[in-house]
Design goal:
With about 140 residues, the protein is of the alpha+beta class. It contains four helices and four strands. The protein has a domain of about 90 residues: Endonuclease I-creI (Roll), CATH 3.10.28. A four-stranded antiparallel beta sheet has the order 1-2-4-3, with helices on one face.
Amino acid sequence: MKQFAAFALAIPMLIGSEMSQALRPPEPPQTAKLESPFACNRLALNEEQRKRHFDELGPALRRLKTQVAELPDGFEFHFPTDKKTFELLAEWIDGERACCPFFDIDLRSQRETGPLTMRLTGRDGVKQFIRADFAKWF
């Protein structure tokens, strides 16, 4: 009789578990993530934005850079910690995200007026792209 009682108590739990799984929406199918090619899409920026990004911001940041550190998957660029440099970097990053979406870009301002750093990294091949396309930065 004890075995029957234990079985009888388990039935509602099993039904409840099966029922809750049946009521769950189906999981979406896994799709392959599309990755953009390693090429700068200058058309992602209009003419005014391109001029600002490539002819003004890039050269200004290259002059301001104080150090470059090589990383396993990219590079880290060090800059002065002033507000103007931070704003220039933020604007440049916004443009770079549009024309080179394959980059992982991290802007870091460390505590206690520590260094301001920008990391450009990404999937396999990005480091080689940076080394070639950003030759003037080194």
